[in-house]
Amino acid sequence: MRHASRLALALALLGLAAAACGETRSVRNDEYGDDSRRARVQGRLSGASDGLVIFGVDRSRPPGSAGDPGGGPGLGVNAYLWRATLDTLSFMPLASADPFGGVIITDWYSPPAEPGERFRATAYLLGRTLRSDNVRVSVFRQVRDRNGNWVDQPVSPGTAAALEDSILARARELRSQSLAAR
User: Fold this and answer.
1) Domain residue limits at 124
2) Exposure string over 51-84, b if 16+ CB within 10 A, otherwise e
3) pTM to 2 decimals?
4) InterPro entries, per this entry (predicted)?
5) Residue 142 in 3-state DSSP?
6) Do 125 and 85 meet the contact criterion of CB atoms below 8 Å apart?
7) In this structure, what CATH number is given to the domain that contains residue 112?
8) How far apart are CA 101 and CA 1, in angstroms?
9) pLDDT tens profile 103-162
10) 100 and 54 Cβ atoms separated by less than 8 Å
11) What are the pLDDT digits (tens) for 5-48?
12) Are 75 and 103 in contact, with CB atoms under 8 Å apart?
């Protein structure tokens, strides 16, 4: 008896789920009548913009300008810091990048001159403004021991700070280039 009631409940839930998935809605042409959106798209196609859009953010407008307050709706962090972090850490293989949460994680990288040593970095972008306290980098280092195992080792104290400084310098450069292109 119990088995039958569980089976009936499972079938009922499955039926409800299938019915919910089957519901469709057709899109009407008047839903695309937003002239401001059409003008932005036409502006990009006519060359009024650089045409590069990252998750709905037009990089030709600096974050914080009237058309793009704080990096736009699609990017959770400052667009210049995001791009600068990717550029600065580009020598390391990328493991993951979350533009909404502002986290970039690299995979292990071994310098060609030191194959028995490897590094990994995690960058945290903490805000939507181009400020030094919106970038934090953590660097991890491992060295291969005699048995071939990787062992955690301390990183030089200035390594993370040097990467943060490089990211900020690159972000400022990107911002200057963007303003000069206007």
Assistant:
1) 75-180
2) eebeeebbbbbbbeeeebebbbeebbbbbbbbbb
3) 0.60
4) DUF3576
5) strand
6) yes
7) 3.30.530
8) 50
9) 999 999 999 999 999 999 999 999 899 999 999 999 999 999 999 999 999 999 899 999
10) no
11) 555 555 554 444 444 444 444 444 443 344 443 444 334 333 44
12) no
